Amino acid sequence: SREKMFRKAVCIQLPLLLILVYYIVASIQDHAKDNGDIYVQHKQDSKCFNNLEREANATIPLQISNSTGNELEDVVRLCNSSFSIPTDHIMQFNTDGALADTVDKTGMCFIRCYFEKSGLIQNWKLNKDQIVQKMWPLAADSVDFCESEAKQEMNACVRTYAIAKCLMQRRFEGTCNPSAV
């Protein structure tokens, strides 16, 4: 019953979110040549997702409010002005959690800029509440796991990219530690 209501709400809200993201990407391309927008495609069939919902005992907000959408657009515009990368690199990152070009650190620095300016990272620590609110639901252990995976990286852009890549891959795979969820 509660799970059915949640799935119905997600099915209604997710298309609206995708439409909003499309318009953000389109408007940004008017302002910066060959740049893209970061957004995360939600997977609803994750084995961790239902456990996370039960743990929170509430629906996880997947819809971006107007103010968050405007802030997101401003962050992307700001990061694109410093770290311009092709749209297809961002689309690939959204699809498989990896950038097409890892020799040039521009894409990694774009992701670092995005994470910092949007509040996903504060004082070099992931802000789990912001990640779940703005991007996607995570297994309880994903933030700690991904932070520890990348802590040996000395370059801030490479470190942030490694964390983002880890988070994306764990979300796509539905990887979790059931005892932590």
List the SSEs and their pairings:
Layout: H1 2-31, H2 47-56, H3 66-82, H4 87-96, H5 106-117, E1 121-122, E2 125-126, H6 128-134, H7 142-150, H8 156-173
Antiparallel strand pairs: 1-2
Can you characterise this structure?
By secondary structure, this protein is an all-alpha fold. The protein has one domain (2-180): Recoverin, domain 1, CATH 1.10.238. Helix content is 62%, strand content 2%. It is built from eight helices and two strands; from the N terminus they run H-H-H-H-H-E-E-H-H-H. The chain has helices spanning 2-31, 47-56, 66-82, 87-96, 106-117, 128-134, 142-150, 156-173, and strands spanning 121-122, 125-126. It has a two-stranded antiparallel ribbon with strand order 1-2. Helix 1 (2-31) crosses helix 3, helix 3 (66-82) runs antiparallel to helix 5 (106-117) and helix 7 runs antiparallel to helix 8 (156-173). The two termini are 21 Å apart.
Name some characteristics of this structure:
single chain, 181 residues, mainly alpha, Recoverin, domain 1, two-stranded antiparallel ribbon, 8 helices, 2% strand, disordered C terminus, PBP_GOBP_sf, Pheromone-binding protein-related protein 4, PBP/GOBP, odorant binding, signal
Task: State the gist of this model.
By secondary structure, the protein is mainly alpha-helical. Helix content is 62%, strand content 2%. It has one domain (2-180): Orthogonal Bundle (Recoverin, domain 1), CATH 1.10.238.
